[in-house]
Amino acid sequence: MANDPVCGMYVDEKHSHLESTKNGIHYYFCSPSCKIQFEKPEKEMREMRRELAVAWSLSAVILAINYIFLSSFAYSKIVMLLLASIVQFYPGLRFYKGAYAAIKNLSSNMDTLISIGTSAAWAFSTAVVLAPSIFPAVGLYFDTSALIISLILTGTYFQRLSEARAGDAIKRLAELKPKTAHLVKNKKIIDIDSEQIKKGDVLLVKPGEKIPTDSIIIDGETSINESMITGESMPAVKVVNDKVIGGTINLSGAIRIKAENIGNETVLADIVKTVEGALQGRIPVQQLVDKISSVFVPAVVLVAIASSFAWYLLGVPAMTSILIFISVLIIACPCALGIATPAALLVSSGVAAREGILVKKGEATEMSNKIDTIIFDKTGTLTTGNLRVAEIEAFKGYNKRTLMQLAAAAESNSEHPIGKAIIRSAKSMKVKIEFPKNFKYMQGYGVTAERRGKFISVGSESLFKKIGADIKSRKRFLESHGKTVLCLGINRKVVGIIALEDDIRKDAKKTIKMLNKMGIEPWIISGDNESAVKNVAASIGIKNFVANAKPKDKMDKISQLQASGKKVAVVGDGINDAPALAKADLGIAIGSGTDVAKETGSIVLIGSNIYNVVVAIQIGKKAMSKIKQNLAWAFGYNVVLIPVAAGALIPIFGFGIYSTLPILSAAAMAFSSVTVVSNSLLLNMFKAKKVN
């Protein structure tokens, strides 16, 4: 089952005839107006403004005739019939279309209630005018039908305005892409539309201009403001061969870039698609609302019929019983129920994107509110991941340069931070790197490869035990100083060791401090040696840690914590920690903006700010608070006011209350939807809580 992305109403995909695809995501709609609003919002808003102008101007004339000039001229009733008919079938036509679409889809929606209710008032009044002998001396209710349409249309209009504001953060991201680009071709610079950029095009970007598309720098160096994508406030220094993200701002130097990703393949497109896709997931609380919404409209119609008929049997005049029927239909607000969750998710996703946080699944928002335990990977997560070779020790018969040549060959196909560190060190030593054969990465152990007939192994002590080699070295001494130590072997014989160092992220300590303050227990589970893990844990205030952990060990620990009733989040690099991220109740991936589409977690931190783990959880908690408030309002509104419309106040105020109750019902219904969206918009005021 799906929900209309515009009004939130329940839609059965199997029978839906109103569909649309945007950014690779398929959507279903309950009415034509919702589909048009989704596909062409500006056109729909223009049409709605015209309808509002007609509805209110004619409703004002109908009110004046009905209450002031009814007996002043002979054809006043005919004039009201004509004017009310225009309102009923021009501005009100959208409700008939929506009801008809619902019938075709074998479902019902808000338009069903409105069209039935207003039609009852209009049809009865028409019968009084055209057949006075059958309905003598009975009041007219053209003002009721016209005002109900005018009020509900007004409420819908303001709801649309609010929803447009709710999606502003996402729209601003989509609009970051510049409209033009400077194409370098045949030693000339030509200004082109950025939509015409092709892969491989060379582009010039001047200081102060936006990067046209995801590219790689081929000439020049500069600093880039990436805050609009990653949330990082400090500019990033970029040199030749560095990647730059489309939509970010070139601050200092003129650069030439080569376009790598264009159109829907860019980071910006990925972010917008991911945020919109997150809204399609049904979080547990929404699933309950879906079930209620699926029976809500039929139930309301039954209540309307039953209450109207019951009061008629008790002696209420026929017209009053009809007004009871109309009031119940109009006061019910399935839209408020339908949009209570999506509206808050939309705004919170936009707020998260503003902070450099990508919520890929709607379920992540609800789960982040329940997390009480967080497991961190160490390398590349709590540390910068910018490992550097600190020491090389060659055993008898080998030298440091030879070791680096062998290690670099084995690691040349590796994407792991350790492999990259070895490659960087080899390049700094001007060592020639040869590509090996039969490269094999063993997660949690290391790598093996063949080079010139030799079997090379680079990894942990466990790797060498796995392949049957002996360890005799200063390995344990280096580990005691907090270094990550690798053994290098040739043909299953250890020929040297390489020690690496890593820096702790500057915001790691305050992240752990804030998590402890929030009552969330932090852990480190790492494949690194115990001393290295222990040093990092002590430095940032984590008491619980597991070292020398293989992928299975991490999975077992997650299962153990979950079995004890814990709700576990895992924070990792999104590639090496993919199994753990998938196993956790909530996976949070740390990754660069250019790798966004590859990440595994339900939440992706686009930048390198580890404190955004805290911010993501805070946003999730705020969003769930708003969802609960919205649902409380929507349920409470219907629980209280449907009985009122059904006649609960008749013993107190008498039947005269129904001279105005249908109109008040329309105003209240419109107000309910606007209230839910407006309450969700308050999430835009979110400010992350900080600690010193």
Describe this protein's structure.
- The protein has 692 residues and is α+β, with helices and mostly antiparallel strands.
- The chain has four domains: 2-170 and 274-347 and 622-685, no CATH class; 178-265, Calcium-transporting ATPase, cytoplasmic transduction domain A; 348-380 and 506-621, HAD superfamily/HAD-like (Rossmann fold), CATH 3.40.50; 388-501, 3-Layer(aba) Sandwich (Calcium-transporting ATPase, cytoplasmic domain N), CATH 3.40.1110.
- Helix content is 50%, strand content 17%.
- The chain is built from 25 helices and 26 strands.
- The strands form six sheets. The protein has a seven-stranded mixed sheet with strand order 14-26-25-24-15-22-23, sandwiched between helices.
- β1 and β2 form a beta hairpin.
- α10 packs antiparallel against α12.
- The radius of gyration is 33 Å and the shape is elongated.
- 50% of the residues are buried.
- The model has no long low-confidence stretch (mean pLDDT 83).
Helices and strands in order, then pairings?
Blueprint: E1 2-3, E2 10-11, E3 19-22, E4 25-28, H1 32-39, H2 41-69, H3 76-89, H4 93-104, H5 110-130, H6 142-166, H7 168-174, E5 180-185, E6 188-193, E7 202-205, E8 214-219, E9 222-225, H8 227-230, E10 236-238, E11 243-244, E12 249-250, E13 255-261, H9 267-278, H10 284-313, H11 318-331, H12 334-354, E14 357-359, H13 362-368, E15 373-376, H14 378-382, E16 388-394, H15 400-411, H16 417-428, E17 437-442, E18 446-451, E19 454-459, H17 461-467, H18 475-480, E20 484-490, E21 493-501, H19 508-517, E22 521-525, H20 530-540, E23 544-546, H21 551-563, E24 568-572, H22 578-583, E25 586-590, E26 603-605, H23 612-648, H24 650-653, H25 661-681
Parallel strand pairs: 15-22, 15-24, 22-23, 24-25, 25-26
Antiparallel strand pairs: 1-2, 3-4, 5-6, 5-7, 7-13, 8-11, 8-13, 9-10, 9-12, 14-26, 16-21, 17-18, 18-19, 19-20, 20-21
Helix pairs in contact: 1-2, 2-3, 2-6, 3-5, 3-6, 4-5, 5-6, 5-11, 6-25, 7-9, 7-12, 9-12, 10-11, 10-12, 11-23, 11-25, 12-23, 12-25, 13-23, 15-16, 23-25
